[in-house]
Amino acid sequence: EMLPGLQALSQLEREFLELIGNGLTNREIADHTGFTEKTVRSQFSVLRNKLGLQGRTQSARFISHAHLADG
Prior knowledge:
Elements: H1 11-21, H2 26-33, H3 37-51, H4 56-66
Helix pairs in contact: 1-4, 2-3
């Protein structure tokens, strides 16, 4: 079952969350997706706002709880 808020995310937004959850830096996510690092930072900010999260640590906990990250 998906956590509240996840169903409102696009596939791309969920992919960003997975990459963040797997510990990738903004630069690594940019390299992986083909977006600029600025776009990655902006997308991460939008995701945090959509999900009511404050920062990477809280986001990582959320991602882990949502079972989005590998491992």
